[in-house]
């Protein structure tokens, strides 16, 4: 199945970024490009922000205007062809929100993720039963089949942690998310055990922000900082909220969220102390709150 219309792939985003940098290098404004080529300035904006894939003749006109050397033209043409490729989609994914499928595409090709979560265990670290309970609770209007589609998708996503070149995940989570009995005591006991097992992997770091830490920059809501292996791909910020999925990629936003994550790492317990806290929550202090691990 082809990628949904309007859902950017990493290659389309890379093409957009290179076209934006080429225009900046000439000192031309979008209005100047429109005057010289007839390409509407609004259309160019959408191309440069990966909202639209350009037509080939548009790409050719831009390369000519920007004076792109022949060898670089060939690289851009190859990237243009790749940008039309299928994204990370399966038949049962067709009804997933467009922003979510875009996030999954980026996640699959990312080198590293820095994920702050205040209310839930991050999706890449969830057990199937915990994921099902979370999804059923949050998406209370969805049918059982729709819930199962989301669960299956979430489990599939976790393959990025065990592939040949696994994703590096640095998760900072709130202590509150470990106390909330999502799915009941048995589900939480398994979830906490899963977190402890996951933390042993060399590509996964888990830190917990304890209740005693007080106010901090993560309190407005969860976010993800995504790093990519290609230096031409800038970091991407993902924010999931009641208002929908938001992607941010301006230098100012990237700097702000990087700094916020660094602050959260500083106020969180160390990975070893976090593991001890997780084990302690599972076993007490209320005499086996979730049963013993």
TrEMBL record:
InterPro entries: Cro/C1-type_HTH, DUF5753, Lambda_DNA-bd_dom_sf. Gene3D superfamilies: lambda repressor-like DNA-binding domains. Residues 19-73 form the HTH cro/C1-type domain. SUPFAM superfamilies: lambda repressor-like DNA-binding domains. This is Helix-turn-helix domain-containing protein.
């Amino acid at each position: 199945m082809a990628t949904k219309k309007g859902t950017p792939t990493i290659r389309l985003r890379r093409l957009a970024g290179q076209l934006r940098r080429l225009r900046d290098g000439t000192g031309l404004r979008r209005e100047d490009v429109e005057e010289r080529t007839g390409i509407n300035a609004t259309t160019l904006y959408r191309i440069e922000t990966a909202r639209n894939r350009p037509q080939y003749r548009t790409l050719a006109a831009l390369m000519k205007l920007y004076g792109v050397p022949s060898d670089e033209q060939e690289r851009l043409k190859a990237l243009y062809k790749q940008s039309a490729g299928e994204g990370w989609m399966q038949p049962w994914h067709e009804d997933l929100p467009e922003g979510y499928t875009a996030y999954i595409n980026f996640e699959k090709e990312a080198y590293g993720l820095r994920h702050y979560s205040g209310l839930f265990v991050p999706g890449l670290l969830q057990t199937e039963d915990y994921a099902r309970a979370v999804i059923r609770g949050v998406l209370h209007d969805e049918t059982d089949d729709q819930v199962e589609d989301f669960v299956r998708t979430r489990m599939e996503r976790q393959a990025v942690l065990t592939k040949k070149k696994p994703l590096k995940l640095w998760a900072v989570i709130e202590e509150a998310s470990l106390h909330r009995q999502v799915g009941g005591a048995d589900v939480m006991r398994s979830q906490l055990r899963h977190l402890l097992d996951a933390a042993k992997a060399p590509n996964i770091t888990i830190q917990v922000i304890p209740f005693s830490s007080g106010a901090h920059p993560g309190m407005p809501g969860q976010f993800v900082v995504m790093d990519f292996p290609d230096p031409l791909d800038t970091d991407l910020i993902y924010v999931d909220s009641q208002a929908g999925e938001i992607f941010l990629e301006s230098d100012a936003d990237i700097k702000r969220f990087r700094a916020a994550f660094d602050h959260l790492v500083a106020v969180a317990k160390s990975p070893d102390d976090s593991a001890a806290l997780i084990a302690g929550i599972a076993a007490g202090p209320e005499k086996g709150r979730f049963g013993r691990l």
